[in-house]
Amino acid sequence: MNLKELYQEIILDHGKNPRNLRRTENFNKDAKGHNPLCGDKVHVYLKLNENKKVEDISFEGQGCAISMASASIMTDLVKGKEEFEVKEIVNDFLDMIKKKDQLNNNILNEDDKTKLMCLSGVKQYPMRVKCATLSWHTLTSAINNSQEEINTERN
Amino acid sequence: MNIENIKKEFPIFDDKIQNNDLVYLDSANSAQKPKMVVDRIYDFYTKEFSNVGRSVHYLAVAATNLYENTRSSVQKYINAKDKNEIVFTKGATEAINLVANTFGQKYLHEGDEVLITELEHHSNYVPWHFLRKSKKINIEFAEVNDDGEVTLESIEKKITNKTKIIGITHLSNVTGAILPVKEIVSLAHSKGIPVLVDGCQGAPHLKLDMQDLDCDFYAISGHKMYGPTGIGILYAKKKWLEELPPYQGGGGMIGEVKKKGISYGDLPNKYEAGTMATAQVIAFNESIKFLEKIGIENIEKHEKDLLNYAIEVLKKNNSINIVGNPKKKGGVISFTVEGIHPHDLATILDEDGVAIRAGHHCCQILHDKLGLSATARASFGVYNSREDIDQLNESLNKCKKIFNLK
Known about the structure:
The complex is a heterodimer of chains A (155) and B (406). With 155 residues, chain A is of the alpha+beta class. Chain A has a single domain, classed as Sufe protein. Chain: A. Chain A has helices at 3-6, 9-16, 65-78, 83-98, 110-117, 129-143; strands at residues 29-35, 40-48, 54-62, 150-151. In chain A, a hairpin with a 4-residue loop joins β1 and β2. Chain A is globular. Chain B has a seven-stranded mixed beta sheet with strand order 2-8-7-6-5-3-4, sandwiched between helices. In chain B, strands 11-12-15-14 form a four-stranded antiparallel beta sheet, covered by helices on one side. Chain B has a two-stranded parallel sheet with strand order 1-13. In chain B, β9 (254-257) and β10 form a beta hairpin. Classes of the chains: A alpha+beta (155), B alpha/beta (406). Chain A binds chain B through residues 1, 3, 6-7, 12, 16, 37-41, 62-66, 125, 127-128, 131, and chain B through 18, 339-344, 347-348, 351, 358-360, 364, 367, 373-374, 402-404.
């Protein structure tokens, strides 16, 4: 176990000053997520343009450093990407957190991948994995328009 | 048994947990087990095991006697009038469900009110909530004040002529507030309203005297009293157990079973359907003995000292906010640290072997009221010492360092 791996500078920075912590005006997709065990809540707003490109993405919510940082980094990285690319990034990230050692997508550049890999420290803390994945599941739900609130205890 | 070196009675502290000495500050969640309790379970299973109350062979009779001995010990420990006022359940949650279900079935009707408090944990809210749907009753909440207390006055304010039963915690698992149970019971009784006390936190830390409290129901959690999991106790005045319908049906709770009808067993069998947690009940007798050997007065004194010391230490740490400031308070401190989420605190503290709880502690109503999504909580047991508090404080400072906070 290594706390320094979990609480890297970049996580602390994004946790303290989350990017895109607001509500997108004229969003056309959104979803809510909730982790009832910790009380973490997140609401993801998405604005896709006519070409299905993410014109803007933002979130509102409260939670621990890990969940805030994860949502912050996520929104930063998917902005400007096309919907199918976003789906691939989300799946790749969730796979990495669950089982793989690295990210395999060809969409993100190396810098962005390095940023995202900073969240891999939670793998050593099974109870905290949900903190890192909540906003990502919520993003999927928003894209799929599934209307269902993501609940970490039901997935 | 001397409380100063009681820690050695608990095998969990013998070994390192992840290379650290364990600083266990999560007893409000569940308490650690003394060796005598653990040994009793092993001995029962290896040398004395049988089901109780049914067969006539030697082991069955001996096990039945042991099982009933625990009932007598509990009766004595909580000063109940009658041994048959003690019903074993799987936990305090089941004890409260038993009351809500059977009392609701028989006495609650559309528009009736159940009065609970904003301090209640989910076990003393959700079972009543079921009756909102099945019986169309309303649930009222007595308000918690800024100090994290529920006063006699706040209960009185919410009593109406529709109030049919009152459910209150003895000791809050978040703010530590000890409620004026005796006064609330006396007020309720003057209006003909029965009172259920959720004793999850009260029972391990306070002197219990059912004759003095005079409550109608008292729910106890075994595992919070240094006992095994899977066992709880419902104390109920005999007249209620006689009047209320049975809770679950099955073997052990019946009198005669015919195709045309069934009669139910005598008390307390009427409420103990199926094979009970036999080994746990028998081992729980050791928990009672353990508490009696130390003496509840000594436990109260010890935990009060720890509490005062912890408040003093944490108050010096100026980024820590303690939740609530009740005048009468048990060994529970919920707090927040500016700039660090409780879950991050819990993870970092865990690295030093300091076990606390973070979250809403099964009290979402209270956290909503306080405007907090989560808090961190340190709660004490007989085995804690001032050194544990010092370690807690030191580890909290480490959290601040990791988060670059002063």
